[in-house]
Amino acid sequence: EVQLVESGGGVVQPGGSLRLSCAASGFPFNNFDMHWVRQAPGKGPERVSIINRDGGFTSYADSVKGRFTISRDNAKNTLYLQMNNLKSEDTALYYCVRVHYSDYRRGIYEYDYRGQGTQVTVSS
Fold first, then answer.
1. Distance of alpha carbon 28 from alpha carbon 18, whole angstroms
2. Any idea what DSSP says for residue 32?
């Protein structure tokens, strides 16, 4: 059974940092690209960051570029998102997704599994 379990969310002040983790099980983690996606209340999902299967390629949404860092440890079957200099607009439910199909040149992705998410709230 494929499982993706996020952790590391919480309440943090503006300018603070958090590190999210996504523990994967039930499939060969190193065979799949992975993304972080977030959804704020009343808004649609936003793809935050992507990483390919060996970690050699990463990409970020403009809204988080320079502040967030995605990484993965294939030996531990774990995906990470280091978030620095957090802003109020980063408040959202963050979840990891497994990529079923990708065309990076055209920016087309299909997801087949997602975790339940971890809440990040940035507030003073």
1. 27
2. S
